[in-house]
Amino acid sequence: MPSTHRQRFGRRGRCRPLPPRLALLLLTVALGPGQAAIRIPAGYQVGEFKQPPEITVQPVSVTAFTADDISLTCEASGNPAPSFRWVKDGEEFDPTSDPQLSTSADSGSFSASGNDPIGEYQGKYSCYAYNGLGTAVSNEVQIIIENTPKYVKEKKVTRKVEEGESVVLKCNPPSSTVAPFIHWMDRNLRHFEQSERVTQGRDGNLYFANVFASDGRDDYTCHAQYISARTILPKEPISLTVTTSNSVLRNRRPQMMHPSGAHSSYLALRGSTLELECIPEGLPTPTIQWVRRDGVLSESRTSRQNFERVLRFTNISETDSGEYQCMASNSQGVVVHTYTVTVEAAPYWTKSPESQLYAPGETVRLDCQADGIPTPTITWSLNGSPISSVDPDPRRRAEGGTMVMEDVQPGDTAVYQCLASNKHGTALFNTYVYIIELPPQMLTEDAKVYTVVEGQRALLSCETFGSPKPKITWEGESSDTLLSDPRVSQLANGTLQIASIAQEDAGLYTCSVPGANLSITAELDVLNKTAIISPPEYLRVQRGKSGFFTCQAVVDPKLYPPVIQWRMNRKKIFESPYNDKYTLDGSTLAVSDVQSEDEGMYTCEVITRLDMAHASGYITIIDKPDPPTLLQLSAPKDRSLMLSWSPEDDHNSPILEFVVEYEEQQFGKGEWIEVARVTGEVNHVTAPLRPFGTYSFRVTAINELGKSKPSSPSALHSTPPAAPDMNPEDVRSESTEPGTLVIMWEEMDQQNFNGPGFQYKVMWRQSIGQGPQWHHNYTSSPPFIVMEAGTFIPFEIKVQAVNDLGEGPEPEPEIGYSGEDTPLEAPVGVGVEVINSTAIKVKWAPVSKDTVRGHLLGYKVHLKRLGPGNRRGRRKRGRNEREGERSDSVTVETGANEEKKVLGGLQPYSRYAVSVTVFNSKGEGPPSEPISFDTPEGVPSHPTSLHLESPSETELTLHWTPPSQPNGVLTGYLLQYQQITDSEDSPMQVETIDDSSASQFTVKQLDPQSRYRFYLRGRTSAGDGEAIIKEGATMLDGAPPSNISMSVGETSVNLSWVSGDRHRNVAFHIHYLSKNGGGQWKVSEKLNSTQSFYQLQGLQPGSQYRLQFIFSNNTFWETDIQTQGEGMLELKEGFATQGWFIGLISAIMVLLLVLLILCIIKRTKGGKYSVKDKEEGQVDSEARPMKDEAFGEYRSLESDNEEKGTTSQPSLCEDSKLGSQGSLARPPRQPNYSQLHHWNPGLRERDRPTA
């Protein structure tokens, strides 16, 4: 590809001047002679084995300057060690006889020092290595000796050009076989920048396609660098003067600066490098394009360099022969230069003979085939001498590239040279023919096991060696001829090849040499082929989501474990700790956050040590479609138009349908309204429109993933106005007040107005026959109210849409009523039928519809509970209960056609009153006359509560409260109980309690080990009521606690225990004794067994105690404990009673008393204080409480002294005296609490002591 960055002049390109006439580029290739050595296998057991010579290091051509060292290397191997000789320019040359040359004793290499004249050694050389078995010949090389390039004094060159013209600055470096590297630099040795406008050619010249004024300078210097001579020669600086003009520069069409003319020819050798150069001039600077006239320009073997000015062929081949063109163009025109490229080839081998061992009497055939352009000729040599100069032998004949020797003998052992030559060079190949007889030997180990997989090719080796070459045979376990199977073949080296291996091919195979008693066996083990049974699938993944591939395979157990390798477009996939794009989990590959670059083929490779199976899946990215484009409006009509659009990318998910929407700009609410849906194959639709509207359209595409974004809105389209084509709907009466008719309807959408001046025409008349004439009026919105319309009078009403262009269709009338009023009369014939204690049926006669004065909505049955039933023996109620009963009422509504109603949920044994009213939308009419009735008795509700107590282990006393709703006269209770067992079939015991006022009952003779379930019911004359259920068991006699655990602290011990289930409370005490100092037993407070926890406090740290738990004057548990912490130091017995100790204490007390008296005297005298200090002292005394547990803010004594310089030094007893108000003495100071590190900043004013 062409380079786009700017380079510097003098890049490390070579200066290659062309010949003045036809430019023929002859690029020679140094061809080394081919040679094939005879190799004796390492495993072949043989004594000393002679070998003909083999050249191992070939000489290389040398180009040197007169002061350089030169050397030619030629090394060879053979047995016996070969000798060497040289041929220079066709004549024998002995390096050992030249004192200026240094030679090597074990090779043919020689060298000469640059200190001696070396010009005489220029020439062409060939190296010959020989021993008793033959002579090997090296390739022909050349030594070229040149004089070291030297600086030549030149005249300074000055070039003067006008701005915009072209110019060439020539370098003309000293000639050399090896072209120098050219560098154009300024006087500061900085390279000039290169561009399309300014280019350095392959000849070293500097070409300006057009010059700028800024190009003018006097230091354009060409430096020629000769790498081999280690020399850089600077040329004379060139001065370039650019004259400018005030006129506008005139553009010029391109012209070819180099090469000149319209055509040039080049000859290149196959495999070499060829560069075609094209440097044009013109203004503006021309651009370059390379084309091949007679074919396609190879992109793999060509590249463009030097800003497109050079087309470079790498490893050129015969197919590159042809015509090429460089087209230079600018805004003024084009210039074309044509290049004819001819590719020829020096000789190269297509088939070469193989060096071999032959047995006496065999026929030897050597084949040499070479190619080249022109076609090379082939000649033969024997030990370096042309075959024509060797004594003729009837057993030997050479025809072209083939030599045949019959009945060879050991004396025919030699090195034969095959030489191919044409005008471009030669190719030499050494072939060794060794006539010897060697016994055959097996070189492959016996009993070798070959493991292959089904379907593969098996190669069972049977390597032998000998002269003549041993012939071998293969046999299998079956009697069938092994080579009769078309899958089986024997290769030239003796290897048995079996193609498409199957399980039945497993077994033993034998290789033998007939007549030599030599054989080996080979075992073939055939394994199952690795197969992928669940290959990756072709996934369609939405952009941003994850794709998951699975790859499950069946692998032969002998090939475990397989390696699973995933590839994406043939590139390996690896997990990375830095991102989670790929997650590999066994046979699963997860590709997260799929984007465009993740689309492609994913291949799973299951690799074992013998085979590999692979399968591929694909990720296709799918997404919501792109919005349609190019919305076009066509075929407009009054109420329709044609809309068409162009679908866009569906992102690999076919478009299912298009949604067409419009927005009405004039009366719309900014909403897009769907007008049509069409399938994904359709790209147009006829859209129905309303009159008097301004519309814009948009289209949305939908595929399986959802909707695209809406398209851009179309152009606006307006429709002409028209008369309304519809009327408002839901015309009705919503009259609520008597004497008015309120006509209501649903307002029409403005988009249906169809034109300007829209109104509603409201029409009404009474519905009596056809009634009088229609009344009408106009309004812009509902409702419309007609006054003095009577009470609940039927009217025919209708509403019609009108605008400036006319009226809408004739509407159908609707029936509406004027306002309602409350009903006038109550229902009559009201009766009550008592069904049972909780239900009644109420009946009444229908009212006259004329008295309803509105739509009859139904009837309301009002039921009110007046109190308990009016019967003997009813229980006396409290005032609160009676008030609650008086407020117990309910209202039930019925339909308009119902004249009876069953009411349930009444309370038994109660007195009720019932009445009935009729109602319409305006309200209820007057109630009917109330009817009173009583409900019969019912069964009571369950007792309100039930509690169990156990006076003994065999008795339970039940305590209860009466039912909250006796529903009659309570006559007693029914008690049932039974033992709770797993089978739930224990007999039920029954106790009848006839006393209705009873509230407890004791059940005796119970099993202490059992639990019981009790059922208690109240009773009335109607039967037994609901039961309250309770479970319980008797309490067992108490016992002291067990399972006592302890947690010992410094001054206390925590005790916990578990009380027995159902045990009565037991009281006990804890007795404890300190074992450190004797002392007496101490007793805790009374404890009970149900509290489960107790903390024994008041113990001494680091002390031992004896604990006893006492119940009924008996110890039921005891233990020893050790409290934590350090114990108190014990004084020796009698210490405090010693006389000397008492005297010491008395002296100390007297001394303290004296000091206290001195302090009081000193404070009484005091110092003089300023009034300010005194006031501050009083404030301090008030602000600082004396209690240690609630002291306030403080200041140190030192800080006080610093603040009040007039205060006297405090006395030792300063803190013990309070100053009075009448004294000038400083009030007593609080202690220096700062040294105690106590502070209470949160002390509030009300917490401080008053004065």
TrEMBL record:
Which residue windows does the record flag with biased composition (Basic and acidic residues)? 1171-1205
- Cleavable signal peptide: 1-36
Q: Where is the composition biased (Basic residues)?
A: 867-879
Annotated membrane topology is: Single-pass type I membrane protein
Q: What are the UniProt keywords, alphabetically?
A: Cell adhesion, Cell membrane, Cell projection, Disulfide bond, Glycoprotein, Immunoglobulin domain, Membrane, Repeat, Signal, Transmembrane, Transmembrane helix
SUPFAM superfamilies per UniProt: Fibronectin type III (SSF49265), Immunoglobulin (SSF48726)
Q: Record keywords: Glycoprotein included?
A: yes
InterPro entries annotated for this entry?
FN3_dom, FN3_sf, Ig-like_dom, Ig-like_dom_sf, Ig-like_fold, Ig_I-set, Ig_sub, Ig_sub2
Looking at the record, which segments are called Disordered?
A: 88-114, 706-735, 867-898, 921-948, 1171-1251
State its location(s).
Cell membrane; Cell projection, Growth cone
Q: Which Gene3D superfamilies match?
A: Immunoglobulins (2.60.40.10)
Matching entries from Pfam families are given as: Bravo_FIGEY (PF13882), fn3 (PF00041), I-set (PF07679), Ig_3 (PF13927)
Q: Which residues form the Fibronectin type-III domain?
A: 627-722, 727-821, 826-938, 942-1038, 1040-1126
Q: Which PANTHER family match?
A: L1 CELL ADHESION MOLECULE, PROTEIN SIDEKICK
Function, as annotated, reads: Neural cell adhesion molecule involved in the dynamics of cell adhesion and in the generation of transmembrane signals at tyrosine kinase receptors. During brain development, critical in multiple processes, including neuronal migration, axonal growth and fasciculation, and synaptogenesis. In the mature brain, plays a role in the dynamics of neuronal structure and function, including synaptic plasticity.
What's the name of the protein? Neural cell adhesion molecule L1
Q: Whose protein is this, by species?
A: Scleropages formosus
Show the taxonomic lineage.
Eukaryota, Metazoa, Chordata, Craniata, Vertebrata
Gene name, per UniProt, is L1CAM
